[in-house]
Amino acid sequence: MRTQPDLLSWTLLSVRGGLASTTVEASLTTSDGVRDLFIVLNPEGELTGYHFDLTDAKASRVAADFVRSLSRGHFISARSFLSLPLQEELTTATLQSRWMQLQRSTGNFVRVVRVIEASQSDDSQLVLVNTEFNRLTDNLFVILNSNNEITGVDFPQDPNPPQKAPAPAR
Fold first, then answer.
1. What angle do CA 134, 60, 47 make, to 5 degrees?
2. CA–CA separation, 73 vs 57, rounded Å?
3. 127 CB neighbour count, 10 Å cutoff
4. Which of 143, 141, 162 lies closest to 18, judged by CA?
5. Is 137 helix (H, G, I), strand (E, B) or coil?
6. Which of 85, 92, 137, 149 is most buried, with most CB under 10 Å away?
7. Contact at 8 Å (CB) between 125 and 143?
8. Domain at 7-154, CATH from 3.10.450.590, 3.40.50.2020, 1.10.10.10, 3.20.20.80
9. Would you state the pLDDT for residue 129?
10. Exposed e or buried b for every residue in 148-162, given b needs 16+ CB within 10 A?
11. pTM for this predicted structure
């Protein structure tokens, strides 16, 4: 913490509940300038990850284009973003089925809100695609190899149903 720039002010940009996580976006004004912060919370409200926004790079563009292809019903095009081994595993029909199953829980696709390059190693990169549907917003996790081919996609399978907000204290 001592090596980080001083926090001068902050602005909460959004809080979006998803199937298995909640996304919080904030803009931080620091002694080094403005930085956007992306936080992911689990259903218990515990921090499961955070990332400072980076300029879109090639991997994030691939992940966003993949999700946009799915959202337009272009499943053959979406499948072309996958690595060859993953294409063998996921047929066009399987990809379509998983996307449709996701939308049964989330509602219809509205837009890609933000694309975040969450982590990177020598041979892979994790990209979070924060995606808005008409009932909620959720993160799709896309893993790419060093050739920017998609090697893994996490479509939430076990959604957490919306829960009632607690009654306000009196």
1. 65
2. 25
3. 27
4. 162
5. strand
6. 137
7. yes
8. 3.10.450.590
9. 94
10. bbbbebebbeebeee
11. 0.64
Which two structure tokens, joined as six digits, stand for 90? Answer: 């996921």
Alpha-carbon distance of 128 to 28, in angstroms, equals: 20
* DSSP string covering 38-84: EEEE-TTS-EEEEEE-----HHHHHHHHHHHHHHTT-HHHHHTTB-H
59: Cβ–Cβ under 8 A, 6 or more apart, which residues?
117, 120, 125, 127, 144, 148
To the nearest whole number, what is the mean pLDDT of the chain?
A: 82
pLDDT tens, residue by residue, 137-156: 888 999 999 888 899 998 76
* Exposed / middle / buried, residue 123 (Cβ in 10 Å: 0-12, 13-18, 19+): exposed
Residue whose tokens read 């994030």: 60
Q: Is the dihedral of CA 167, 132, 86, 127 positive or negative?
A: negative
Q: What is the pLDDT of residues 1-27, one digit of tens each?
A: 555 678 899 999 888 887 778 888 888
Q: How far apart are CA 50 and CA 139, in angstroms?
A: 13
